[in-house]
Fold this protein.
Amino acid sequence: MRIPKMSSRTYTDAINALNSLQSNFASIEAMKKLGPNVNRNELSINEVREYTARLGYAPRDFNKLNIIHVTGTKGKGSTCAFTESILKQYQPDYITKIGLYTSPHLKSVRERIRINGQPINKELFTKYFFEVWDKLTSTKSDPKEWPSLQPSEVVKPMYFKYLTILSFHVFLQEGVDTAIYEVGVGGTYDSTNIIENPTVTGISALGIDHTFMLGSTIESITDNKTGIFKKGSPAFVSEQKEYPKTHELIEQRAKELGVSSLNFVHPNDLPDVELGLSGEFQKENAALAVRLADTHLKSIGVDSRLEVSSSDGKIESLPDRFIKGLKDVDWPGRCQVITNNPSGIIWYVDGAHTIESINASSTWFKEEQLKSPSKRRVLLFNQQGRDNYAELLTTLYQTISEKGPQLAFDEVIFTPNITWSSGQYNPELLAKNTSEDAVKKLEIQHKFSELWKELDDGKAKRMVFPDIETAVEHLKSGKQELNVFVCGSLHLVGGFLVVLDNERE
């Protein structure tokens, strides 16, 4: 694509250039057919090492960032958010700048690269984006050192890798002295895993996801996730309630990779404190975050005065700064309740998109409904990119309607992730990783509708809309008091939040 000259470059130019790096649907399908081993080579972190080298960085340079590295299947983003919020309480006395790299974004790609709790502004994003772009354009790979890579004028890193590389550049240039990195997919082969000496590593709840890259068994997924363990660095892992048999493998991998210590964290290790994120399951993530933050602080010479029992790992005394951090955390799109809107609708929003997270999110919604007087309930759902989409919707139905107290939806709505009724995506929400033809024909949405008919014997009203805006306007037009559960995809949730706030580009 044609990139404007330096003097005329804008934030929009940066977004357009970034979008050109997305994998299209055809290439993803071809990659899936090649099998997991080839996929891993395709996603090799050697590319990230090579590209960062061409920017003038060696992996040891990233040690200056004092990195906390977190992976998992469910809850890794929330764990990072809790950790960031706790550490913000130690500014400016002990920490100057905190960087957070996370994915995916909800409304703006800048959410992925945060400093001191805020997405970097458009000017900084544009400046650093094109610094990386131009450097990679004007340099070439050394075929002797990197024989598998093409010259830079032929290829640049794909979307997620580019943002990972960009985040390293931004954080180093901006003087970040504490950084939290959320793994994108897996661990061993993830583009964030060029980190050599993290202050601490963490693993949240594990589950079955991204099987075409990580394998279809919990053992293969665990093996990959534990790939972020580093020699000499401590590691904390949430107790794996769903897959307790992984504990032995995690211990084996920790020994193999030479971690300095390994501790399993139970949610009951955390005293009863107020959390800024709803859902009982968030206690798991908060407990993990507390241990990560405490260990990180110790690594930079700060005694948090957190007291942990040496016998059972329970936290006996939680410092005031930790209590405030856990309460003040802000992580939109995850168990978020939106009430202050003129429609009178209460929106329950969670971007759950794995079996485990769908189960947790649906349990949270159900608990919220049991607390309040009955209103008409509506489900707004989509999942466009996963092969087990039918299993996800079935899990949601079973959790709401079959386990424990039974609830039902009066109406279910299915929509693709297209933002506006014009058929357009917001530029920062454009996705090329799904079949455009299938999206236009609403193929999956109609399958969802038929599946729900089978699940609830046709009791709920079912509707399919071609975009998020039309679905939201339909709900608002009813002028009824509604409780609406928006779930199934962070891409859906991001588009929903943009529509709700009418943030048109």
Summary: The first helix runs from residue 11 to 19. The chain has 18 helices and 16 strands. Residues 209 and 289 are 22 Å apart (CA to CA).
